Structures are given as structure tokens and as C-alpha cells.
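User: Please fill in residues for this 299-position structure.
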């Protein structure tokens, strides 16, 4: 049961205002907006340009352009291509080596597009004072966590043709970074999953703003580990999640604009103090939100 419980904790975090600020060090490479892998070169193609970056860091999004009418496969998944030929895929935290995209052009020509993955280092964070039943949940609680995680996973399969992810993302809350993406978490001495987002310490009740436009696909006030939880879909499999909220001001199916208030900072679920947890995904691949935005507004 211990192994199952740890596996189910991948959505949760436990940082709070008392956690030491995350600062660049030899054990951690914080991400900034330039780390978002954008096309850097144009390669000739029969039906138009092919633009992909030469490299991309772990836990980032890779954006590119292929000729309209092409098909693209990545990791066995068909990648959505927009009407302008734009696409996006995600690089996992643990992914190494080369990201390979299999492209079939409109005339049937097949090409293999490779992107070198740049490795990162991730720190270890020890979190104490977390309720023990959230670290080693009894069977009935573990079953609840599993059901709730399945609900969240289901909405992450959405693949809309919207391109809200192309916006320049903004910070949902201003404040001190109290937890970094990818950090190995140790809860009350028990190793847990890597931290799935970035935490910003902020007072209880601070408004949380949508970092980019999108559609609300999940809004629940009382999940066991993550408390008040909201997911916003930005199109093409890219989504944001916000955890531990004290109040939710949006509903499923609602279209939200960048900067719109979606709820308030809280400490619901597995948390030891008020903070905003912001996670991002490309389908089931976890992405570092700091890879998509500027550093202003945090410290």
C-alpha cells in the first residue's frame, strides 16, 4: 500500500510561506521564458517551411511549424497541427537524449525530426509538519485519492484546436517562490514524488489570475490532497492546474481570459500554509510553468 500511496501523490504539493525561498544554486536550474523551446531554424520542405528548435530543456514545451496538411507522430501519439501549421509537444522531467518527431509531408515524404534534450538538475526539498495520513494514507483514503486522480487525468486527455498556449504566459500570483518544479519531495522523512509545479507564497485570500486564456475543464473545492482544484485547458493538450485554493470563482465549461480572477489562494488539502501551486501539463507530461514566463512579479 505504501508504494501505491506514493504513486498517487503526484498531483500534490506541500510548500508554504515558511518554506525557504527557492534561489538558483548548483543543485537547481530555475527556468525562465527563454527556456521555452521555440523554432530556431527553417528547413526546406516541399509544401512549406519546417521550423523546430535544435534543443529543448527537460520539462519544457517544444513549439514548431510544419507544412499544413502534414501528419506528426510523437511517442506514438498523433500531434495536432493548427491551421497555420503550428504544433506543440512536451518534454518530460525525466526525458533524456533526443526527442524524435515523425513527420509525413502532404506529398507522402517521411522525415524524422530530432530535438536534443538539455538536462537539468533538481534539488531535494524536505517538508515537515504534513498530516501523516496524507503521506501514508489508510486504504479507504488511498482509494479516494486514486478516484480523484483519475478524474483529473481524464480531463487532461482533451485536445482542442484552440491555440491559447501561444500567448505569453503571466504569473497568476505575485510573491515569493517557495517551491520549485521538479524538486524531489521528502514528506515527514518519507520520499514522495517530484514536485509537479511551482509554489508562490501569498496571503490567504490573494486573488489568483489565469496565466493565459482557456476553458475551465475541472473545478472541485475539496480534493483530499490538493483541496480546491482548478484546471484550465489552453488547447493542443496544454493545461494549467491550480491547487489548495480557498475559493473557486469559475465553473467547468467557462471560457476565461488571461488575467481573469479564477479564485483565491488557500491552504486546503495537503498544505502547511497558504500558497498558490501552479502546475502545467502537455496531456500526461508535466511541464515546468517557469519555462513559459518572465521572472517579474516573483522573488
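Assistant: Residues filled in for all 299 positions:
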Amino acid at each position: 500500500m505504501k508504494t501505491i500511496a506514493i504513486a498517487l501523490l503526484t498531483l500534490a504539493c506541500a510548500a508554504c510561506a515558511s518554506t525557504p525561498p527557492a534561489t538558483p544554486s548548483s543543485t537547481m536550474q530555475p527556468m525562465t521564458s527563454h527556456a521555452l523551446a521555440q523554432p530556431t531554424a527553417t528547413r526546406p520542405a516541399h509544401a512549406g517551411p519546417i521550423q523546430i528548435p535544435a534543443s529543448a530543456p527537460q520539462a519544457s514545451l517544444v513549439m514548431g511549424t510544419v507544412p499544413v496538411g502534414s501528419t506528426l507522430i510523437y511517442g506514438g501519439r498523433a500531434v495536432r497541427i493548427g491551421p497555420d501549421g503550428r504544433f506543440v509537444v512536451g518534454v518530460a522531467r525525466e526525458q533524456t537524449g533526443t526527442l524524435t518527431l515523425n513527420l509525413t509531408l502532404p506529398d507522402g515524404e517521411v522525415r524524422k525530426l530530432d530535438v536534443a534534450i538539455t538536462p537539468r538538475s533538481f534539488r531535494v526539498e524536505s517538508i515537515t509538519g504534513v498530516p501523516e495520513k496524507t503521506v501514508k494514507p489508510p486504504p479507504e483514503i488511498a482509494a479516494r485519492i486514486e478516484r480523484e486522480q483519475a478524474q483529473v487525468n481524464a480531463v487532461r486527455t482533451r485536445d482542442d484546436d484552440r491555440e491559447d498556449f501561444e500567448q505569453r504566459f503571466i504569473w497568476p500570483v505575485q510573491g515569493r517562490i517557495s517551491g520549485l518544479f521538479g524538486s524531489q519531495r521528502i514528506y515527514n522523512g518519507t520520499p514522495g514524488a517530484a514536485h509537479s509545479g511551482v509554489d508562490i507564497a501569498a496571503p490567504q485570500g490573494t486573488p489568483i489570475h489565469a496565466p493565459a486564456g482557456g476553458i475551465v475543464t475541472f473545478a472541485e473545492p475539496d480534493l483530499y490532497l490538493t483541496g480546491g482544484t482548478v484546471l484550465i485547458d489552453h488547447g493542443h493538450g496544454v493545461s494549467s492546474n491550480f491547487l489548495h485554493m480557498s475559493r473557486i470563482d469559475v465553473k467547468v465549461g467557462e471560457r476565461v481570459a488571461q488575467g481573469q480572477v479564477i479564485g483565491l489562494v488557500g491552504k486546503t488539502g495537503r498544505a502547511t500554509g497558504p500558497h498558490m501551486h501552479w502546475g502545467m501539463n502537455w496531456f500526461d507530461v508535466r511541464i515546468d510553468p517557469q519555462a513559459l514566463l518572465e521572472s517579474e512579479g516573483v522573488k
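For context: The longest helix spans residues 139-155.
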